[in-house]
Amino acid sequence: MSAFHIAIITVGKVDDEELRLTTVRVARLLRAPLEIRGRLPVPQAAHDTERGQFRAAELMKSARSMAPQLGSGALVGADGVLDDKPPLKTDGYIFVSDVDLFTANTDGVFAALISKAGLAVTSVRRLRESFYRRSADLNKQRSRLVKEMARMGARLRGAKECSQPACVLAASKHLADLDLKEEKFCRDCSLHLFEGTVRI
Length: 200
Ligand SMILES: [Zn+2]
Prior knowledge:
Layout (H helix, E strand, L loop, with lengths): L5 E6 L4 H15 L3 E7 L6 E2 L4 E3 H11 L7 E4 L2 E2 L10 E6 L3 E2 L8 E4 L4 E5 L14 H19 L18 H6 L6 H9 L5
Helix pairs in contact: 1-3
């Protein structure tokens, strides 16, 4: 499983240092380095002018089509930036954006996935306290992003949604679901992800 290579690409405005600090924690959780590849502009084709939000699937597909214009990035492991070059083959993409995302039948989402295409997106917009008109809490915001990026990374690797509320792979429909989670996978998900075994 460790050969599954994921590239992280910023779409829009996300603080570089913040993304690096977050990615270190995601790499620790996924037990694999991730590549931070650079930044793309927000694809306006994904904008829904009536809602003032962005269609998640379209944003992912547009960003994926623009991805080749970025050169290779920096490999980030659990202890920081690594000297190794990232692998040439990319198995999955996690786009990290700051725009408000929605999917069919939702008001808005924290993250979305097209697993068969190897595409995932998450936005910091609804992870920030300011979205809920509360004062900023950087630690909370960062932890939420770690959990959503790790959830997307695990899903790209083929993991399923988990029924344990404290597990990173549990559904995160509401902010409360996300805040309830710990920054780790439950035992069953860990076994499945890292040992390749399924407990019956
Ligand atoms: Zn689990």
